[in-house]
Amino acid sequence: MNDDTTTVAVLGLGAMGSRMARRLIDAGFSVRLYNRSQGPAQRLREAGAIAAPSAREASLGADVVMSVVTDDDAARAIWLDPEQGALASLSSDAIAVESSTVTPAWIETLDHAVTERGASLVDAPVVGSRPQAEAGQLVHLAGGDPDALDSIAPVLAAVGQRVHHVGPVGRGTAMKLVVNALFGMQVAALAEMLGFATRAGIDQNAALEVLAGLPTTSPALAGIGAAIGAGKFDPLFPIALVAKDFRYASAAASAVQARVPLTQTTAQAFAEAAEAGLADQNINAIARHYA
User: Fold this and answer.
1) Are 160 and 247 found together in one domain?
2) pLDDT digits over 182-192, tens only?
3) In this structure, is residue 142 part of a structural domain?
4) pTM more than 0.90
């Protein structure tokens, strides 16, 4: 697909979708937008995108239709709503791209619906947050037919720095849940141990300094620790979404009879943190739950 002639519809203009859309505009793609509220589309319209009143209209005639929303329910509404959903106008030669963090069960449903239209689906959720989205440094975890993935390579390259093709449709989504759960378990473990350290009389910043200098602490976790020490809890990855991803990971693991006791325990920890009033704070704010 050539960026001079390719039309990309971006459905969902939250923290990630709006930044991904801007990267596509800057790369020269013709970009069409849909979001439930019109506010996020204003700056993108000024940059040259076309905003549509529904997902169906945004997707009409688009070569690539990309969804970037919060969960299964939002994705189902944006694709399958009988009157306003994107699927109703998806052309048979289009590529549907689900870049939301959803469940493999939803991807299976969507794949069946897209295939019935004669089109192809690639599930390509992203690893990264707002800074990576703005810089075009996201990493795509992709599942789908290799030819379909090759055809959208320029689109993915405009918003990310790397694509990992991990198998057929659904595998990208499963891999994203693996990645998010593994990261979340590390963050929860750090928060728990900091709570232990401080109750044992160790200054939190002293404990963080020790941990940051050890090879047992990953660079990502050292960054989380630094943010905890600085009291920075701005919601790049809000605990509410972390808790949702853990619910999805637990359900997906159960569906394939995988034993995930640590995942289930960590899911409970983030659920409790959300219920304790930390839902809108960043993932590292779980440390406050143990303080």
Assistant:
1) no
2) 999 999 999 99
3) yes
4) yes
